[in-house]
Write a structure and sequence with these properties.
It is a single chain. This protein is α/β, with parallel strands linked by helices. It has a single domain, classed as P-loop containing nucleotide triphosphate hydrolases (Rossmann fold, 3-Layer(aba) Sandwich). The chain has 13 helices and 8 strands. The protein has an 8-stranded mixed sheet with strand order 3-4-2-5-1-6-7-8, sandwiched between helices. Helix 1 packs across helix 11, helix 7 runs parallel beside helix 8 and helix 11 runs antiparallel to helix 13. The longest helix is centred in the last third of the chain and has 19 residues. The two termini are 36 Å apart.
Length: 284
C-alpha cells in the first residue's frame, strides 16, 4: 500500500494544553475528511493510557500499542481499518505504565512508526492532553503540530503554555492553531489574535491559524452516542462544514472541492437557521 508519489508521509501531531477541548474528535473527523479527498491516512492514538480513538470510530481492536512496546506484535499486525478507509493504530486504555514510558520505549515506537512513512499521505498522531515526554517526542518527529483550543480563557492559557514548551525545545515542527467551539467568526478571530500576539511578544513565534470549528454541541453529542464521526453522521452540520473548510485550507484546495455549494452561504444559513432537533434524532 504505497502512496502514489512514493514520498514519505507528512506527520501531523494533534495536541492540546488541556483535556476536554475536542482534540480527539478533531483528529478523527479531520482524518476522515482527508481520506474522503483521496488521501491515505493513518491515525495513531498516541494517548498512552487513556486511548479513545477506537471508541469514536466504533472499531474493535484486538491489539494496541502495548503489544508493540512489549514486542508481542509487529506494527503491521496492530493496524485496523476505520471509517472511509482510514487506518488506525489503537492506543492502550487504562494501563498506567504506558502514560510514563521510558525513553527507550518511546524511541521504539518512533522507529516502528517510521516503517509506515511510505505507505500513507498523512500520519496523524492524536496525543494525550497537556505536556509530557511522550507529547514532546511525538511533536519532535512531526512536520506540523496542530494545537486545539477553545475560547475558554483556561484553554487559551494552556494552549499558550503548550506552545511555549514546544518552542523551548527548539523543535522545528510548524505550529498551527484550531479554535474549537466558537460562537462566531469574530470570537474565533479574537481568540486566535490573543494567542498569536502573546506568542509573538514573548516567544518571537508566529503561529499559523488553521481554522475554526463552530460550536455544535447537540450534533457532536449525538454522533458520539452513535459512535459514528459527525462528518459522516451529520455531514451538513456546522461542525462538519467547519472541518471540511479546515481540511480544504490544509490541503490547499478550494472549498468547492469539498463542498459544491458556496461554503460561507451554507455556514451562514446553518448559523441563522440551525438544524432542528427532530432532524438530529438518531435512528436505531
Amino acid at each position: 500500500m504505497n502512496n502514489s508519489s512514493n514520498q514519505k508521509a507528512k506527520i501531523i501531531t494533534i495536541t492540546s494544553g488541556k483535556g476536554g477541548v475536542g482534540k480527539s474528535l478533531f483528529s478523527v473527523n479531520f482524518g476522515i475528511a482527508c481520506a474522503k479527498l483521496g488521501k491515505k491516512v493513518l491515525i495513531i492514538d498516541g494517548d498512552l493510557g487513556l486511548a479513545n480513538i477506537h471508541i469514536l470510530t466504533n472499531t474493535h481492536p484486538e491489539h494496541d500499542l502495548l503489544d508493540i512496546l512489549e514486542k508481542r506484535k509487529k506494527i503491521e499486525d496492530v493496524i485496523i481499518s476505520g471509517p472511509e478507509g482510514v487506518h488506525i493504530i489503537p492506543g492502550a486504555s487504562g494501563i498506567f505504565k504506558l502514560s510514563n514510558t521510558t525513553h527507550a520505549k518511546r524511541q521504539l515506537l518512533i522507529d516502528e512508526f517510521s516503517k509506515l512513512e511510505d505507505r500513507y499521505d498523512f500520519i496523524i498522531i492524536d496525543t494525550e492532553a497537556g505536556i509530557s515526554h511522550n507529547v514532546i517526542k511525538f511533536v519532535s518527529i512531526s512536520d506540523e503540530t496542530i494545537v486545539i483550543t477553545t475560547p475558554d480563557i483556561t484553554a487559551m492559557a494552556d494552549a499558550y503554555a503548550t506552545i511555549k514548551v514546544i518552542n523551548s525545545k527548539n523543535i522545528t515542527s510548524k505550529i498551527s492553531i484550531v479554535i474549537n467551539r466558537i460562537k462566531s467568526f469574530e470570537e474565533g478571530e479574537a481568540t486566535y489574535k490573543k494567542i498569536s500576539l502573546v506568542c509573538e511578544k514573548f516567544l518571537s513565534l508566529n503561529v499559523h491559524k488553521l481554522g475554526f470549528v463552530f460550536d455544535d454541541t447537540t450534533t457532536v453529542k449525538l454522533a458520539i452516542k452513535k459512535r459514528i464521526p459527525f462528518i459522516l453522521s451529520f455531514p451538513k452540520s456546522k461542525a462538519s462544514i467547519s472541518i471540511k473548510s479546515i481540511t480544504s485550507s490544509f490541503l490547499g484546495l478550494s472549498i468547492n472541492t469539498i463542498e459544491p455549494k458556496i461554503f460561507l452561504n451554507k455556514l451562514a444559513m446553518l448559523i441563522t437557521h440551525p438544524i432542528k432537533k427532530e432532524e438530529l434524532v438518531l435512528k436505531s
